[in-house]
Each structure stands twice: as structure tokens, then as C-alpha cells.
């Protein structure tokens, strides 16, 4: 049985961004915690944030669009992070093989 994507996402984001979100279960609360972390990174180490966004493979166009807004820029970036990580987890679960290919079986 595949793990719940939300649980995997929560754990992945907690590890990647150094978030303490063990008690956070809803999408809203995860995004709220991410928003605070993005604010910290923008204020203290924007290069680290942009490096993380690059490694997460979030398109530059989407980042620029979020930053072009006059309000809630950090929340928009947090949502991009959340959505991208969720996409990756769902994709991994879809393409995970439950048994090895016959060609690869020994």
C-alpha cells in the first residue's frame, strides 16, 4: 500500500526546509509554515532559497510570476513549493513498480 502523499509531503518539506510541522496535517497549515520559512530565507539568505527552488525544479517563469505580485509573494512561493513536491510524490507513487520486471528478476 502506497503511503499517503500528504504525509510524505509533510515529511519531505519538514526535512528539506527545516520545518517543525509534525503536528500540522492540513494543506493550509503546511503552506503557512512554508510561507514563514520562505520569509526567513528571503530576509536572511535569498541565494539559499533560489538554490532550493532550482533543485525542486520549479520553473523560473512561475517564480517570476509569483514575485511580480504586489502582495503575498512569500505565500505564492510557498504554494509553488507545496504543489511541486506533491507532483513529485504522486508521480513516484504512480510509477513505482510493485514487482520487478521479468527481465530484471533473477
Task: Describe the protein's architecture and organization.
The protein is an all-alpha fold. The chain has one domain. It is 68% helix and 0% strand. It has five helices and no strands. The protein has helices at 5-17, 27-44, 46-55, 60-67, 73-95. It is globular and about 55 Å long.
Short description:
With 106 residues, this protein is mainly alpha-helical.
Cα gyration radius (Å): 16 Å
How many domain modules? 1
Order of helices and strands: HHHHH
- Strand residues, percent: under 5%
How much helix, percentage-wise, in residues?
55-70%
The biggest beta sheet reads: none
Structure annotation, total helices: 5
Strands, total number: 0
List the helices and strands and how they pair.
Layout lengths: L4 H13 L9 H18 L1 H10 L4 H8 L5 H23 L11
Core attributes:
single chain; about 110 residues; mainly alpha; 5 helices; about 0% strand; globular
Amino acid at each position: 500500500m502506497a503511503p499517503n502523499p500528504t504525509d510524505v509531503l509533510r515529511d519531505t518539506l519538514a526535512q528539506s526546509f527545516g520545518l517543525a510541522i509534525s503536528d500540522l496535517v492540513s494543506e493550509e497549515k503546511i503552506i503557512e509554515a512554508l510561507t514563514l520559512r520562505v520569509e526567513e530565507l528571503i530576509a536572511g539568505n535569498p541565494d539559499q532559497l533560489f538554490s532550493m527552488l532550482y533543485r525542486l525544479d520549479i520553473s523560473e517563469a512561475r517564480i517570476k510570476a509569483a514575485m511580480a505580485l504586489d502582495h503575498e509573494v512569500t505565500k505564492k512561493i510557498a504554494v509553488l513549493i507545496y504543489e511541486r513536491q506533491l507532483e513529485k510524490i504522486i508521480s513516484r507513487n504512480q510509477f513505482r513498480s510493485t514487482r520487478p520486471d521479468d527481465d530484471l528478476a533473477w
